[in-house]
Amino acid sequence: MPSDVGARRPHDGRRDGGATKHMATTTEPAVARSAKSGVQPLLVIRNVAKSFGKNPVLRDISLQIAEGEFLTILGESGSGKTTLLRIIAGFESANSGEILMEGERLDLLPPYRRRVNTVFQHYALFPHLSVEENVGYGLRVAKLPKDEIAARVSEALAMVKMTAFASSKPAKISGGQQQRIALARALVNRPRLLLLDEPLSALDANLRRQMQVELKSLQREVGISFVFVTHDQEEAMVMSDRIALLRMGELEQVASPREIYSRPATAYTAQFIGHTNLLRSEVRAGIARCNSLSWKVGLPDGPALFSLRPENIRLATSTGGSDMNVIRLRGKMQHQAFHGSTELLQIVCEDGLALSVRVAARENREGDLLLEFSPADAVPVRESSERGQPS
Amino acid sequence: MSDARSTSRWLPWHAIVVFGFLYLPIVTLIVYSFNGSGVGGFPPHNLTLDWYRMLFADDAIWESVVNSLVVAFAAMAISLMFGIPAALALDRANFPGKALFRRLVLLPLILPGIITGLSLLMLFREADVKLSLVTIVLGHGTALISVATTEVFAGLQKLDRAQEEASLDLGANYWQTLWRITIPNLRLSIVGAALLIFTLSMDEIAVSFFLIGRDNTLPLEIWGRLRRGITPEINAISSIIFVFSLIAIVSWYRLRMTAEGTPEITAEVVETAQGL
Amino acid sequence: MFSRAYRAAITLPPVLWVAVFLLVPYALLFCYSFWSVSPSQTIVHTWTLDNYRELFRVNVYLQTLFRSMWIAARVMIFSLLLGYPLAYYLSFYAGARKDLFYQLVIIPLWVSYLVRAYAWKTILGSDGVLNTLLQYVHLTKHPLEFLLYSPFAVVLTLTHIYTPFAFLPIYAALEHIPRNLVEASHDLGASPLQTFWRVIFPLSIPGVLAGATFAFVLSLGDFLAPLLLGGPSGIMISNIVVSLFGAAYNWPLGAAISLCMLLLVLALLLLSEKLEKKWSFR
Q1: ipTM of the modeled complex
Q2: Which of A32, A46, B246, C48 is 20 to 30 A (C-alpha) from C170?
Q3: CB–CB of B267 and C168 under 8 A?
């Protein structure tokens, strides 16, 4: 089975022995796996690297995109996500590596010969053309017959529910409407792959949530692979079949949203996606010790880092001590942040350990709290590579 | 932009041709100012500084230079003194006839200079004012108000209103705010306008032509010489004028660069003029 | 936000000055065009349409006007042909050297008009640089006469003067085109050439109109180049006006012609403005 990042690649003699890098998790969701079984992937990105002058922006990216999948490239600003997208679209060329679409070299073609279309971050609608002229642009350039153009344009407008605005100019329609037109303009060309460069970032929160759902169902309906770039991890989780987390030019982890959330590979992943508590522990003879807490683990001796999600810490149901299945601890509540249905509590234990705990919202908590969690929820993660910030 | 294709390969050549077209006359002029055998004749030979020596001994020319400088500074003062308030007024005040005023201020910029010149001549004639350097100063000053107005107006658009509001909020009145906040922020536009006005005044012919009295400005002095016949002395003074113009434009450009990223010099003036 | 006194203080001085030194003179221009000159060379302040009748009666005025417009039209076309590709090159292909090239285009603008016109005079004359050069390399045997004292010389010189004027608004318009539109066009399958005609050029039209208007209007009213380089066949309408205020001493007639020029120029500017609005997609 083709894997996405690194595990199959031999450690290539790096100075640190490669122990901490390039072992990003390569699990794939059942959906993608079955879609790929026996069928070659739509897009193969192989060892792509890109620097701007002396500044390396992408270091050795290898990734595959399956037919019909919704992949999100997630990362902070500066992570290289937009550069990667632009390399796929053809607006930048990689310094090394190659990109293949259905077995043929894509990176050797100029952007106007690739069967790839882009929805730009600020839509890039042509101000001098009407909405329907915008949507039909690619078809006119390809010199398709007039009636076919008209038919496909009205089909595309109907798909994004903008038929009424066909003869308006882009300056006269709202941001959300422009975004739909940008989408229609790209999709009407029936590309093999659709790239979306943070298309929802300019919309307000409610419209954004609505568009997330619409985009997802649109993708399902149309069946084209979508590569979506964003810095918003919630957005990525809502929409994607798989998430590729990019950090400082390298793929940190590529997996389904559930997988990446419950089994983060690194401390960075655990903290970037959702909230987490990082427990620094020492393992000796099968027991992990973090301050005054200890539990059984099947790990070799040495330092270890565990990610424990705040929602996996609950108020203790009974007052007994810790045992094999549940670790109990006591702590003082420092802060209570109301989030609507839940609240996030900042707890400090007697031994100084600080934890975030997510519980159902309730007013008037005070004093000492008795908490518990299952050892199985403490997921071992590696340190992020030293290039990054300390976790 | 990626991938230079065949269409774009001729573009650099075109650019070279245009730059050549723009600069060759000036270069030729300078070269021949050192040519012993006069303005024409290829190839130039007989390298000499004679023409420059003749130039420096030419009192009439230097008198006209002094006249031009005096006129330029005075015109600059007038244009700024009336152009800055005009820009402020157009930006912040509503008054009857504002639209007419706006158009009127811009007219000298767009109309052929001689029309403005002869209109002023008629004014002075009717008012029985004798022609002299003063009338030239009035002419230049008036014609160039529009330059000051458009530059300062463009600068006002870039101004952050919140700064003026903050000043008022902190207790300064309108005049103090104008003096302490608005004008300093417009420094760049004002200096840029001053430089431009100065240069335009030094070279002005069309308006001056009609308003000249007994004292010549430099361009008119040269003009007079030209009617009598070409001498390489004129090449010499022209070369010197070129050097000064070069210094002026480069200073102008550097000035703009210090504050903003891309100075769009006269284009901005032009745009604002259209916008106004 | 601003007090009455403040607004009055910034409004009154410029308005008064402009009223005295612009409004009144232009009004006088209007009046003069309807007055006449007596044989003893004084201005007669009686109202008459004689000057205007004269304009249409005597051929030379209209002829010269049309010749001036034809010269201005050629200057406009050549300035655009030279200026547009230059602006396009600077805006889209020059990269890091864009600023330097921009300065290089602006510099000639600041150099004295007189100096530049004079330079051409020394180049185009029968003993001038170009003719002697051509003879020196044996391309011609005799000096080419049409180079100087002809409409050719005027068009050439004015094109030299006004190409940077045409360049500036075109460059500004091209710079305003968001680069992501070019990328979007490529993304949708259009080659660079197709992208130019379908996206870049349409969006640059307001700049082209502005540049064309400058080149045409400024050339039309020019009097220096024809005087220095035009010869008898290259006289333009402004030269006639200047002589009417000089040797020919007929101020009212000169005023009438000037007024016509002024109206023509204003009409062209209005037309240009309307067209620019139509082609601007903000």
Answers
A1: 0.87
A2: B246
A3: yes
